[in-house]
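Journal club side-thread
Mid-discussion, someone asked how the predicted structure for our own chain would compare to the paper's figures. Pasting it here so we can look after the session.
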Amino acid sequence: MAQIDAFFKLMNDEGASDLHMMSGQQPVLRIRGDMERVKFKALENESLKSMLYEICPEDKIKIFEETGDMDFGYEIPGLARYRCNFFQQKYGIAAVFREIPSDILTCEQLGLPKVIAKLASLPKGLVLVTGPTGSGKSTSLAAIVDEANKTRKDHILTIEDPIEFVHKSQQCVINHREVGTHTKSFTAALRGALREDPDIILVGELRDLETISLAMEAAMTGHLVFGTLHTMNAMKTVDRIIEIFPANQQGQVRSTLADALKAVVSQTLFKRIDVKGRVAALEILICTPAVRNLIREAKTYQISSVMQTGKKYGMQTIDDAIMELLERKKISPEDAYTNCIEKQKFVKFLKKPPVDFTEI
């Protein structure tokens, strides 16, 4: 048993999502979104380095010492998997660990709208799950892949950096590939994927032009592609994909994206006030013919209006999702106000409306 495993056990017992370990400071847990210090001595650089290197593969140590940054996966059987990031900072070595539960929760257990599970049955196209870091994108994607694994008879290929949720083949055959270990890059893995007979491809992160371009190509050639982006809502997701391409290609990209894109799910996590834990508010865009036309005609600013009138397709805006959680008394009015788009809809719920400097 590695020395650091005791911290992972504590992390699991406390229900923490992340563990921070930094030279010169006490370990810190992120519990329900808040940073809580562990009652432990401040970590010294050399002892922390020794503790971290104990669980790190040798080839990854070499990369870290050359670059100052490095990611890998670590697993404690019977407890959980961990996404590990090592980095150098002013006072020495530091690391952040994200817990990936061993048990994959279903869409129903996560309380996701029914339309989310239906995305697993799409025959082809591009489905994007977006949101800031730590918003639960990987958890929702794992639930969708799990639904496909139980209901389809296909080949699922995941490409991640590092591998997070590990799926056991059920109705489907599943292969997991880790960037840096099993393949050189997301781009190389996506190129190879087109020769590996996949039906469903999960791309851990759409980071650059080439990866996005290959993901759209795969979606257009008969594959169902799931991916994540660090964008805040559906409209900005569409704009981000188009704007990453050179200006002279954006017209063609709009047309391709309009045909390839099937859905965008944007998540924001909230601390619950009714019970311990957190809950996600989801903005859901389903690409109907009206949405496709808006993308082609560069009128993405009208997408939110289509979402408001497209509830029969399962669409909802982030404000509608937040309002539902607020009315069911699952989240606080303050959190709702902070994370909503149209502030005036939520200000009436506040006892003391704050000064919003963004509107001055």
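Post-session note: The chain has a mean pLDDT of 94.
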